[in-house]
Design goal:
Jelly Rolls, 4 domains, 6-stranded antiparallel beta sheet, about 35% strand, glycosidase, signal, carbohydrate binding, Lectin_gal-bd_dom
Length: about 575
C-alpha cells in the first residue's frame, strides 16, 4: 500500500523478511554498539532514535527508569552518530572494498566516494583478544577485542566501540534537605465490578475477540463475559480452561474470583463450581503495554483472541464456549468514572480503616511537592500492580511486586562475544521498577493529589516522594579525545575530585578506579583546575594538558576521573 502511493522518497520500516526492495529497512533493536557498527560496515545506513533514547511512549509519561539518559550508552552512541555523520556523503555514494588481516580476524572495509575519491574506513577486530594492526601508509592502530574503529580519511581514528569516552553518574534518591519525612494519609474506594461480574457489557459477539481490536487502545482492560447453564439439580465441579495470549488474566465464576495468571502465552486452568441454572463466567484481560519490536509485531494477538475457552467436567467431557454469545466491556468502571481525576467527584472515597492487600481498589492521598528543583520520583514500594496519577496526569503503569530472576548477575560484564539477552545482567532479584518520575510540571505549589489503582492487592503505606540527585560522577577518556563532566543540573557544582589519573588507570566505573603502573603527576591538579566549582567542565585529554613528555605512558593513555557534586 505504501509503495503504491509513489511519493518520490523511500519509505522506512523495521527489518522484515517480506519488505519490498524499494523500502529502506532500519536496524531497530536493543543491540550492542558493536552490532550497530557492523550494521554500518555492511552498508546499513539508518539507525532509529531507539539507539539513543530507548522507547518513546506515545501519549504517556516516561517513567523514571528511562527518563534519564542511559549513560554511558547514550553518550557512546551519540559519539557514534557524530562519527558516522562525518562520513555521511561517502557512505551513501561510494564503492566498497573489504580486506582481511591477521588470519581473517581483522577486516578493513573501505568506502571510497564515487564523487571525489574521499575515503572512510571501518577496522574491525572479531577476535577475543586486543590486536595491533599496521595499515602501512595509513598508520598503526590498537583495536580492542571484539570492537570496530571508524577511521576518517582511513588514517585517523574518530571512534571505537570499546573505547567509551563518556560520563557515568551515581544518582541517589532521597528526601530534600529542606523537607521533613511525613507519613501519607490515605483514602480508598472499591472498583465497581458488579455489572461485569453479572455479565453486563457494552456490546456482544459470538466469538472471542482480539483485545487490541476490541479496545482501540482506550484501556489496558477488557472484560469477556458469557453464561452457561447447569441443567442439573445439584452443583457441578468443573475445570475452566482458557487459552490466553497475554498478558494478565483474572477469572471469576458467579462473582467469585477463582484465580489469576500472567505471562505472554499460557493456558489457564482452575477449578470452578457451577450452581444449578445459569452461571456467569467473567474474564478480565489486562495488557501491560504492547509488543513493539520484531517482524509483524502489530499482528501479535493480545487477550483471549479466539480462545478456546472450555469447561471440563468430572467425566472429562469438554464443552467449548468459544462460540457462545460473549458480552464485552472495554475498561474499568473507575476509568470511565475518572476516579483518577481528583476533580471528578465520581468516586466515593472511604477513610478510617484502610483496606490493604485488596484487589481492584483505588487509593487517594494528598502531598506537598518536594522542595528544590531536582527531579521528583514517587516510590511505589509495597504496591502490587496497577496505574498511578498525580493531579489527574498519568505516571504510567506500575508492577513493583514483579521481581527479576534472582539468578544471572555474576557481577562481571564482558562485552566480547556475540550478543545474548542474558549478557551483563543487573538488578537480579529486585523489582523491575520501583520509582516513577513525577514531572514538576504536574505539581502544584500547594496541595497535590496522588491516586493509585491497585489491580492485584498492595499496601500504599510505604509510598513516598523523593528527589533524585547526582552526587558522584565518573568518566573515562582516551588520549586524543575530550572528557566532558556534568552534575546534570539541579544547581549542583563539582565540589571535589576523588580520583584522577592520566596514564593506565585500572577500572571502568565509579568506585572501581585504581592507579596503574604509570601516572602523570599533574593528573589531579589539572582536573581540579578545570572542574572544581563548575556545574560542568571539559578536559582535553592530551600529554600537554597533564604536562608530560611525548614519550610518557603507554600506547593507549587514558584519563579516569571520579568527582563529587554538591
Amino acid at each position: 500500500m505504501a509503495v503504491a502511493q509513489n511519493i518520490g522518497v523511500p519509505w522506512i520500516m523495521c527489518q522484515q523478511r517480506d519488505a519490498p526492495s524499494s523500502v529502506v529497512q532500519e536496524m531497530g533493536s536493543k543491540r550492542s554498539t558493536q552490532d550497530c557498527r557492523r550494521f554500518s560496515i555492511f552498508s546499513g545506513t539508518l539507525f532509529p532514535e531507539q539507539w539513543s533514547v530507548a522507547e518513546l511512549l506515545h501519549g504517556r509519561t516516561l517513567p523514571n527508569i528511562i527518563r534519564n539518559l542511559n549513560q554511558p550508552k547514550w553518550g557512546h552512541l551519540k559519539n557514534l552518530h557524530a562519527a558516522l555523520k562525518l562520513g555521511e556523503k561517502i557512505l551513501t555514494n561510494s564503492t566498497v572494498k573489504t580486506t582481511k588481516y591477521l588470519d581473517g580476524w581483522v577486516e578493513l572495509t573501505t568506502y571510497t566516494s564515487n564523487i571525489d575519491g574521499e575515503r572512510l574506513c571501518f577496522l574491525s577486530n572479531t577476535k577475543m583478544d586486543d590486536l595491533d594492526v599496521d595499515l602501512q601508509q595509513d598508520g598503526k592502530y590498537f583495536v580492542p577485542a571484539w570492537s570496530v574503529s571508524i577511521l576518517q580519511d582511513c588514517n585517523k581514528e574518530t571512534y571505537n566501540t570499546a573505547k567509551v569516552n563518556v560520563q557515568t553518574s551515581l544518582i541517589v534518591k532521597k528526601l530534600h534537605e529542606n523537607d521533613t519525612p511525613l507519613k501519607l494519609s490515605w483514602e480508598w474506594a472499591p472498583e465497581p465490578t458488579k455489572a461485569p461480574l453479572h455479565g453486563q457489557g457494552g456490546f456482544k459477539a459470538t466469538q472471542l475477540l482480539e483485545q487490541k481490536a476490541a479496545t482501540y487502545d482506550e484501556s489496558d482492560y477488557l472484560w469477556y463475559m458469557t453464561s452457561v447453564d447447569n441443567n442439573g439439580t445439584a452443583s457441578k465441579n468443573v475445570t475452566l480452561r482458557v487459552k490466553y495470549s497475554g498478558q494478565f488474566l483474572h477469572a471469576s465464576v458467579n462473582g467469585k474470583e477463582i484465580g489469576s495468571q500472567h505471562g505472554y502465552t499460557f493456558t489457564f486452568e482452575k477449578p470452578a463450581l457451577l450452581k444449578p441454572g445459569t452461571n456467569i463466567i467473567s474474564l478480565l484481560s489486562a495488557t501491560v503495554g504492547l509488543q513493539n519490536y520484531g517482524e509483524f509485531f502489530d499482528e501479535g494477538p493480545e487477550g483471549i483472541a479466539g480462545g478456546p475457552v472450555e469447561l471440563i467436567d468430572s467425566g472429562n467431557t469438554t464443552t467449548d464456549l468459544s462460540s457462545n454469545e460473549w458480552s464485552y466491556k472495554v475498561g474499568l468502571n473507575g476509568e470511565g468514572g475518572r476516579f483518577y481525576d481528583p476533580t471528578s467527584g465520581r468516586a466515593k472515597w472511604l477513610s478510617g480503616d484502610l483496606r490493604v492487600g485488596r484487589a481492584m481498589t483505588w487509593y487517594k492521598t494528598t502531598f506537598q511537592a518536594p522542595s528544590g528543583t531536582e527531579p521528583v520520583v514517587v516510590d511505589l514500594q509495597g504496591m502490587g500492580k496497577g496505574h498511578a496519577w498525580v493531579n489527574g496526569n498519568s505516571l504510567g503503569r506500575f508492577w513493583p511486586i514483579l521481581t527479576a530472576d534472582p539468578n544471572g548477575c555474576d557481577g562481571k560484564c564482558d562485552y566480547r562475544g556475540r550478543y545474548k539477552e542474558d549478557k551483563c545482567l543487573s538488578n537480579c532479584g529486585n523489582p523491575t521498577q520501583r520509582w516513577y518520575h513525577v514531572p514538576r510540571s504536574f505539581l502544584n505549589t500547594g496541595s497535590n493529589t496522588l491516586i493509585l489503582f491497585e489491580e492485584i492487592g498492595g499496601n500504599p503505606s510505604d509510598v513516598s516522594f523523593q528527589i533524585t540527585a547526582t552526587e558522584t560522577i565518573c568518566g573515562n577518556a582516551y588520549e586524543g579525545t575530550t572528557l566532558e563532566l556534568s552534575c546534570n543540573g539541579g544547581r549542583r557544582i563539582i565540589s571535589d575530585i576523588q580520583f584522577a589519573s592520566f596514564g593506565d588507570p585500572q577500572g571502568s566505573s565509579c568506585g572501581s578506579f585504581q592507579r596503574g603502573s604509570v601516572e602523570a603527576s599533574r593528573s589531579l591538579s589539572a582536573v581540579e583546575k578545570a572542574c572544581i566549582g563548575k556545574e560542568s567542565c571539559s578536559i582535553n585529554v592530551s600529554k600537554t594538558t597533564f604536562g608530560v613528555e611525548d614519550s610518557f605512558g603507554v600506547d593507549n593513555n587514558r584519563l579516569a576521573v571520579q568527582a563529587v557534586c554538591t
